[in-house]
Amino acid sequence: MNQRDLELLSSYLDGQLKPSDSARLEARLSTEPNLRAVLDDLRSARGLLRQLPLRKAPRNFTLTPKMVGKNPPLPRTYPAFRFVSALATLLLFVTLGFNFLAPQMASQAPAFGMGGGGAPDVYSAQAPAATEAPAATEAPAAAEAPAAAAEMAPMSTETLSAEDAARNAVETPVEKNGVTEEPGVLSQGQAPIQNAQPVPAEAPRPVPPVWQFGLAGVALLSALIMLWMRQMSINRWRRK
Amino acid sequence: MDEQALIHQAQAGDLDAFNTLILHYQDSVYNTALRILGDEDLAADATQEAFISAFKSISSFRGGSFKAWLMRTVTNACYDELRRQKRRPTTPLEPDTDDGEEMDSPRWLADPNMTPDQKAEADELEHALQHCLNNLPVEFKSVVVMADIQGMDYTEVAFAVRVPLGTIKSRLARARLRLRECLQGFEELLPASFRLEEGTSI
């Protein structure tokens, strides 16, 4: 029995031969008892295998999320909150950076424009601190010499306010002497000069702080909602 | 059971949908593993591994016979188990008696729905068939189990074991012939209709 005939017989048994091949094989089977015997053997083997009982599974093989290392399914809105939170956080940092840099850029502009004037130099050196200091404490000092400041330290840009000019006047004694008071002499309730950090009441802030509070709130709220969603999903997942 | 819908849901990560598919196919998958490995515990382990693997890779299922795809997974799990067995000492497939002799009719193949006599005969025949299956090369065994025990067609078997159709035909023919030769040694166990006539030669 060659391999080719064996395959033909096996395929014939399963009805896998083309009609023409099947007819040829049947003709041979009628004349070749050996071939017929092998066909019977193959049929017998197949029949015995088909009689094998199908055993019932000894247990259910259903999977648990833990078995497949599956994360709890999150609600469909979860990615939206994630996007909102990320966007709000990004915008918050952008606006913070913008607000921080804008006054510096504004103060550098007059320094270059004054061509070596004294007052702008003083201002520009103190500008960063001025943005951080509370404005309320400096208000009296600023109010003392608005005219002198306006006269002695003309600003090349419009970003400096009257309070800035007043501070300049206080810190440049030669210029102030004839106008109000001696250097180092403080009026009642005024903070020491070295501690005075005058801040423009109308500091250039391209983005209002309320926006930043809003963005921070949105980012925080979204993060909290995401946390809650995740926790709820984990709880549901564990109950399964 | 809407199989396609369940498959789509499972592909979207729905474990419940996949578990419904498992409940439908677990007997077939387990029996395939049992006949390839010849051991209930190993077959159960391979079945579980196959389903875990199937869920993790269900996104790769691109249609066609889901049963054949599952059979490919369980066949791979069985091959892995057989490779592991080669690397470590194996336990005998036929359990021993207290005296250390092999049990002729092991209880682990018993079917509780038969009378004692029927059970004894069936046990003997099933044991003989499993013995002959165990003697086949694994690539023959997987083909004959899927084609003749699971009733899968050639195309499905070819998909499951990833070999060409011609190879399936060849392996199946040779596997059947080897089984028949092996079963000649258990002639007295075979039903009369399956006994070889005297003088038959292959």
What would a concise description of this structure say?
Chain A is an all-alpha fold.
Chart the SSEs and their pairings:
The complex is a heterodimer of chains A (240) and B (202).
Chain A: H1 3-13, H2 19-31, H3 33-51, H4 78-114, H5 118-132, H6 139-144, H7 146-152, H8 162-171, H9 173-176, H10 209-239
Helix pairs in contact in A: 1-3, 2-3, 4-5, 4-10, 5-8, 7-8
Chain B: H1 3-11, H2 15-37, H3 40-56, H4 66-87, H5 116-134, H6 138-149, H7 154-161, H8 165-183
Q: What is the count of DSSP helices of chain A, taking H or I runs of 4+ residues?
A: 10
What's the shape of chain B? globular
The gyration radius over C-alpha positions of chain B equals: 19 Å
Outline the biggest β-sheet of chain A.
Answer: none
| C-alpha termini separation of chain A | 59 Å
Shape annotation of chain A? elongated
Say how many strands of chain B there are.
Answer: 0
Helix content of chain A: 55-70%
Q: Tell me the fraction of residues in β-strands of chain B, as a range.
A: under 5%
Order of helices and strands of chain A: HHHHHHHHHH
Order of helices and strands of chain B: HHHHHHHH
Query: What is the tally of helical segments of chain B?
Result: 8
What's the average pLDDT of chain B? 84
Share of residues in helices of chain B = 55-70%
Our count of domains of chain B comes out at 2
Number of strands of chain A: 0
pLDDT < 50 stretches of chain B? 103-111, 198-202
